[in-house]
């Protein structure tokens, strides 16, 4: 991915920084748009994956909506051009102020996760003389076959409403005068690479939807969330996920009612592969059983490996030497500040440039100032 001329350009820049290949991003967005448009599907970009204003403005330019999980994400979406009537707002813990922000903005839909949340939205909407449109986030009890930290659709998770609560939800909704039920929402987890999981989700939604139809509860849309994963092992060979097959699964197996819309909330699959974290080697240190390549980037710039042992491909883009194994670590005062163990890299020395790939999702978005570190800047390919 990185030509010698690109590496030369990088060598003049202070590190660490996030590098975004805008051609990869645009090619990905074009494919998502083309394949989703075949079926008239609505795609909302999951802002939590990457809230960089340039990235968001680019996503918005393709006509996508936004999927937000905080009041500030709603504000950022509006600031970067997303239309309020294309914004959905999810999250298990919406604050009063965040709900008010969404009501004032007149967003498309709240994805509601509990009866107490619906009570509060109804109360705040009444105070504002508004009617809030909502979808019920349902826990379909479908195992996403992904890391347990990013599974959201089984009954032991904190997310969503379980089937045993349906009767109480329906009874409560009948008493809420400032809420309009317009959808059913589902999201079963993240980084799902087994597409058969989405077929299973479709079949479960068909069953759940029928429960509501049997009670004469018809909704305008079904929202199947996101969760489609990317190939962290081969980011160049598989830079763009197979969106053709992904969207076709929902067309083939999900039974939509007449004029019922289907909505998606895609994040990682749209932006992960366009981004890399670029860092320099500070020191190479000999350990008892290994060598440590100590970088100037750490868990403050890319938290995923420390948070749930996530794999990212690591490349030394400066060296052509013989391969050796290194534990690639950061400078943060935590033993978990490690990007990879026994990583095979060309012979590595101080000031070599290291690229940590597939960092376009949950890299910059999860950055922190722990140890009072500066937030790393963002560099875009079309500005170099």
TrEMBL record:
Family: Belongs to the Orn/Lys/Arg decarboxylase class-II family.
SUPFAM superfamilies reported for this sequence: Alanine racemase C-terminal domain-like, PLP-binding barrel
Keyword terms of this UniProt record: Amino-acid biosynthesis, Decarboxylase, Lyase, Lysine biosynthesis, Pyridoxal phosphate
Catalytic reaction list: meso-2,6-diaminopimelate + H(+) = L-lysine + CO2
PROSITE patterns, alphabetized: ODR_DC_2_1
Protein name: Diaminopimelate decarboxylase
Cofactor: pyridoxal 5'-phosphate
Cited InterPro entries: Ala_racemase/Decarboxylase_C, DAP_deCOOHase_LysA, De-COase2_C, De-COase2_N, De-COase2_pyr-phos_BS, Orn/DAP/Arg_de-COase, PLP-binding_barrel
Entry-linked Gene3D superfamilies: Alanine racemase, Lyase, Ornithine Decarboxylase, Chain A, domain 1
Annotated ranges, domain Orn/DAP/Arg decarboxylase 2 C-terminal: 17-360
Domain Orn/DAP/Arg decarboxylase 2 N-terminal, residue spans: 39-272
One Gene Ontology molecular-function label: diaminopimelate decarboxylase activity
Pathway(s) where this gene product acts: Amino-acid biosynthesis; L-lysine biosynthesis via DAP pathway; L-lysine from DL-2,6-diaminopimelate: step 1/1
PANTHER family: DIAMINOPIMELATE DECARBOXYLASE (PTHR43727), GROUP IV DECARBOXYLASE (PTHR43727:SF2)
TM region(s), chain numbering: none
Catalytic activity, EC: 4.1.1.20
UniProt keyword Manganese present: no
